[in-house]
Design goal:
Elements lengths: L2 E4 L7 H10 L7 H9 L3 E7 L2 E10 L4 E9 L8 H13 L3 E4 L6 H6 L27
Parallel strand pairs: 4-5
Antiparallel strand pairs: 1-2, 2-3, 3-4
Length: about 140
């Protein structure tokens, strides 16, 4: 294996990145939306084995206080070999001294705890539904 990390969004096959999500398995992602999300992110990381994309992660940040890491995904054959830790460590170093939050897939909390993450008890969210509408109860009737 010749695994390298890359942080530029030039010459990316977004269909291959979308395949990583499906195989990881973390659901489906539209390649065009993935490309836009990456372009609007503060930091993007691609893991490659030779010329093959095998992992992905991205982060948003204000550059001063807060950041959020999203979409850490790795092909199954490369999971549990330290690549996730390498990606996360690189992302955290590049984000600098800011507070970082993330969503953890159920069952993966222990992985993030080993990296210094702690459960949050006061987090809240306002999410879009399947039709793409923002669920905001206060706007009803």
């Amino acid at each position: 294996m010749n695994i390298t990390l890359h942080f530029e969004i030039n010459n990316i096959d977004w269909f291959k990145i979308a395949e990583i999500f499906e195989k990881a398995p973390l659901g489906t992602r539209d390649p065009k939306k993935l490309a836009r999300a990456a372009a609007n992110s503060a930091l993007v990381c691609f893991a490659k084995d030779g010329d093959e994309f095998i992992g992905f992660a991205r982060a948003i940040s204000d550059g001063e206080f807060q950041a959020a890491i999203y979409d850490l995904c790795i092909l199954p054959g490369y999971q549990s070999h330290g690549l996730g830790k390498e990606i996360m460590t690189s992302m955290m170093e590049k984000l600098g001294p800011v507070s970082v939050i993330l969503y953890a897939v159920p069952g993966k909390e222990g992985f993030y705890r080993k990296l210094g993450f702690k459960p949050m008890t006061t987090a809240m969210g306002c999410f879009i539904d399947e039709a793409g509408m923002i669920e905001r109860g206060y706007l009803e009737g």
